[in-house]
Amino acid sequence: MSRTEVAALRAEEPDLAPWRAFLHAHARVARRLDEDLQIGHALSLQEYETLLHLAEAPGRRLRMGRLADSLLLSKSGATRLVDRLVDDGLVERTTCSSDARGAEAALTGSGLARLRAAAPTHMAGIRDYFFGAVQLADLPAVERAMSAIADQFCSATACLHAVATDEADSREDADPGAQGSTPSRIAART
Q1: Which label site among 50, 65, 86, 140 has the fewest CB atoms less than 10 Å from its CB?
Q2: How far apart are CA 64 and CA 71, in angstroms?
Q3: SS in 3 state form for the chain?
């Protein structure tokens, strides 16, 4: 595409500014969160999110396909990621208890300890890089907008995972003594 065509596209599409702002903000925040986790805990943001999804799952285990869906990765991408975590002793691969043909990723004690150690760094980054830049009064609008965008692409598997997580959170909220693993509880236990 020539510079003239690019300039014409921009001139004709002034409404793309919010889209571009979203892309830039997401990329920069994700990069900083990743850097903080790499420096402080030798974990990538994707590895941290994998450990977090496993910690939040019933029995701290997920089928590989469901884990891939929750991480927005292909099955092969999730397999490579889990393989790295297995090599580091943070996750173990097991046979699915309900279907011997399936594989699950299960969080190890070392993985949970590493997640708990990294959670305050991650939460501080979210506070500094996201909440620190958004006015309190704007947060409900940001949440509504991002939820509306995400909801239009919600697959059955991803929605089921979110519902299961929400139900587990509800059970934990009803029983304060429950051994839940939500991000705030992980950070609070460290």
Answers
A1: 140
A2: 10
A3: CCHHHHHHHHHHCHHHHHHHHHHHHHHHHHHHHHHHHHHHHCCCHHHHHHHHHHHHCHHHEEEHHHHHHHHCCCHHHHHHHHHHHHHCCCEEEEECCCCCCCEEEEECHHHHHHHHHHHHHHHHHHHHHHHCCCCHHHHHHHHHHHHHHHHCCCCHHHHHHHHHHHHHHHHHHHCCCCCCCCHHHHHHHC
Structure-token match 């396909």, residue found: 65
Q: Which residue has the tokens 């490579």?
A: 80
Torsion sign across C-alpha atoms 147, 151, 153, 158: positive
pLDDT tens digit string along 6-43?
665 565 577 888 889 999 999 999 999 999 999 999 99
CATH of domain 42-189: 1.10.10.10
Give the pair of three-digit tokens for residue 52: 């977090």
How would residue 177 be classed by pLDDT, with cut points 50, 70 and 90?
A: very low
pLDDT computed for residue 4 by the predictor: 67
pLDDT digits (tens, 9 = 90+) for 124-134: 999 999 999 99
Rounded to the nearest 5°, which phi and psi values hold at 44?
A: -80, 165
